[in-house]
C-alpha cells in the first residue's frame, strides 16, 4: 500500500485488477446490471474525463518523458482505403501515403518539445495521391460501369499548431489546423451528381442528428419537437441545444431531460465532447473515482474547465469542377461489354478559396467562406447541339457565361491572411494570435467592405453565439448539458449570416440555360428516401396556458436567424434563344417522368447580330429573418387569447428586398463578340419590396 500510494498509475491498475477479480465472481445477472449502468452513465463519464483534479499539477519524470515521446511520434500510413456503401452508392477514398511528424519554427522536421520560452507544438501531415471515386452498384451489389474519379491523385498538406498556457497544462488552449491544396480538380458526371448530393445531405443529417426521424409507420416522438427539420436548415447551430431558450414557457423540462438520455446526439457535439478526452492522457484515476454517483467535485470542476479555442481552415489556390454527361458505348464485338463514355459540358473555375471556422466550445461558432475569383465556361456540346466544338471557332469570351471577382495575379495571396501558411501570421513570427470572440466586436471587424478587400468575388460570414445574461460567469464556462432551468432561462442565442457577391457579369444565352437546366434534371433523377421527414403541420390542442410572468419573460428576448445577401455591380445579359430544347428538360423539373434521353445531332448555326436585353444594377440587398425555434414559438403564441403585436411579429418570416440603380437597355452581339451601344428602355431607378410569411398557419 505504501508503494501504491506513491505511484497513482500502479494504484489505478491495482484497483482495476481487484475490481475485475470481484466482478468475475459475480453472476451473469450482475454483469447485465453493470452493463446497463454503464450505458446510463455514458454522458456523465464524458464530462468526468474532461475534468482533471488539478490541471496545473507539475508532472513527474515519467509523465514528462511520456509527453516528450508522444509529442514527437511519427505516424506513416501507406495505401489507406476507406469505403462507404449506402443503397446503390459506393464511395471510396484511396490515399497512397499519409505522414504526420513534428516540426520546428520553420515547419521543417525536428525533434521538439514545449518549453517555458516556447509553449508551442507544431506538426505537419502530408497526404500524397488522394483519389476519391463515386460509383453506382446494381441490385446484386456489383459495379457494372466505373465512373470517372471525383478527385484523382490530389496531394495536400496540413499544418497543426498547439499553444499551451504553461508547461503543466494538460491540453492546449489554442488549436489551429489548416490545410492547403495547390490544385484541386473535381469531376462530376450526370450519374454521380445525385449521389454526391445524397452524401452532402448525409453530412447535414449527421450534424443535426436527424437520421431516421419520422419514418413511415412510426408515431411522432415528442422529443422531435426540439429539432429543426432538414428542409429548414438555415444555420449551423447544434440542434441538441434547441430547448435552452424558454424552458418555462414551453414546459420542456421533462422533455429536455428525456432528450439527454434518449435522443440521438448531433455529430458535431459528439466529436466536440471527445476533444478533452483525446488530449488528456493521464486522467485515468480521476475517471475511475468519478464513477461514484455521490461525488460531485468532478461535475463542478468540469463547469470551470475552459474550452480551447479551435481554428480550422481549408485553403485552395486553384480549383476546377467539371460537369460531364455520360453515354453508353458498345465495343466492336457483339459479346464485348459496354463502356461508359463521358463528355465535358460545363466547367467551374475558382481561385483563392478560403474556408475558415473558429469555435470556442458551444457558445461561440464562426465560419467564413470566400474566394478571389470564379468563372463558368461552356464546353463542347449539349444534348446533341455542338455549340462549342473545336471546329466552331467561337471566341473565348462567348464560352464564359459567368465571371466574378479578380485574378490571383492582381489580388495576391490575401486569401491566406493570418493562416499558418502566411509568413506574416502571428504564429510564424513567434507571437501569440489574438481572436475575436465577442459578437459586437466581430461585426465591427468583419464587415462587408473588409470581406471584399480580402477576397473580391464572394464572402460569407456566419456567426452563432450563445450568451449568458445572469452575470454569474461567461457563457462558455457554463455546463450547457446540465439541463438546469435556472441556467437555461438566461441563455440568449443569436444567428447571423452575411453574404456578399462582388462585381459579376452573367450572360444568359441558350448554351448556358440548357447546361444549367440539364444539371438540375440530373440532380432530380433519383429515388432516394430523405433522411428525415418534415413534421406534419398539425395544431396541438393540448397546449398549456402560460401565466403573465412567463409571457413577459418570453417577450424579453426571442432568438432569430438573420440572413443578409448583397450583390454589388451586377450585369445581366439575356440573349435571344439560338436553339430551344426546353420541352425535354422542363417536364422533368416540374416533376413529370423523364421520357427518354433526347439526343439531337443538328448542326449549330450561330446568329449574328444576336439581340439581347442588358440589365445593370448597382446594388441588390436581400434580408431575411425567421424565428430560430418557430415551431415552439408558434405553439406558445397560439395558446394565448390576446398575444401582443411583438409576439405575432416573430411568428412570421420577414423578407426585405432593396434594389439600387436598376436600369435596362436593348443591345446586340456582333460577330466580333462586342456589343453595340445600348438603347435604354428602363431608366435608372431604385425600389424596395417587403413580404412576410406566417409560420405554421394551421396553428
TrEMBL record:
Which Pfam families does the entry mention? VPS13_N
| Record's keyword terms, sorted | Transport
Q: What superkingdom heads the lineage?
A: Eukaryota
Region Disordered, as annotated, extends over 16-56
Domain Chorein N-terminal positions: 15-685
For bias type Low complexity, the affected ranges are 27-41
Could you confirm whether the keyword Methyltransferase appears in this record?
A: no
The record's listing under InterPro entries reads: VPS13_N, VPS13B
- Protein name listed in UniProt: Chorein N-terminal domain-containing protein
UniProt lineage: Eukaryota, Metazoa, Chordata, Craniata, Vertebrata
